[in-house]
Design goal:
187 residues; mainly alpha; binds heme C
């Protein structure tokens, strides 16, 4: 192998790109299976777009909202769970969140791990449309979707001799039948 260094470089580069993709997929899976449902079930009632009163002006339904935080400042410090108010609150250190009862150790650990990995909040394409990473509806992306386009009158292509539409020998061996009588029923 004369070009060994170049080959090695290509192998290493491909490997690290693949690892990068793998890591992102793992983080997305982790977030979607452990973190998003946990926040939705235990916090959205008081800290989200759908809450009647958004307590402490904090929303936890998007990364941007968490970084903006509530009246006490940012709720998370990506990479630093111990300094994150959200983590302190679920550990019942200063505040006690959720107020109705402490999360399980596994749930708290999942949140800690998520903040540790930088609190990734992948975009999610859901029935309600494309969402940006902070959970907002991405209008620009949504409006380019066909479902948002006005209905247009389309003119179908001319049909002509049906058999001519089939390429090659097909049209040689098959012939259309005569139009059936209007009373005929084919089985
Ligand atoms: C039943 C309503 C309710 C639920 C559910 C709830 N919270 Fe809260 N949250 C509050 C209230 C009320 C405050 C304000 C407490 C205070 O200021 O003393 C608050 C404040 C906070 C704060 C401080 C924000 C700031 O800047 O002042 C954090 C962080 C927080 N909640 C996180 C959470 C998390 C995470 C969950 C889910 C695991 C959760 N909360 C679930 C009612 C709720």
């Amino acid at each position: 192998m004369r070009n060994f260094p170049a080959t090695l470089a290509i192998i290493l580069l491909t490997g690290s790109v693949l690892l990068g993709v793998r890591r992102t997929t793992d983080q997305t899976e982790f977030f979607e299976s452990k973190v998003r449902p946990l926040l939705a079930r235990n916090c959205y009632q008081c800290h989200s777009e759908q809450a009647k009163i958004v307590y402490s002006n904090l929303r936890v339904d998007g990364r941007g909202a968490l970084l903006d935080g509530g009246t006490r400042g940012p709720a998370i410090v990506p990479g630093d769970p111990n300094s994150s108010q959200l983590i302190q609150a679920v550990r019942y250190e200063n505040l006690e969140m959720p107020p109705t009862g402490r999360l399980s150790e596994n749930q708290i650990e999942a949140l800690v791990e998520w903040v540790e990995m930088g609190a990734p909040w992948p975009d999610l394409e859901v029935a309600g449309g494309v969402r940006t990473s902070d959970g907002q509806s991405n209008m620009a992306a949504n409006q380019s979707h066909w479902a948002w386009k006005p209905v247009e009158k389309a003119s179908p292509p001319p049909v002509g001799d049906t058999m001519k539409r089939f390429p090659g020998d097909f049209s040689q061996s098959l012939r259309p039948r005569k139009p059936a009588a209007s009373t005929a029923i084919e089985i």
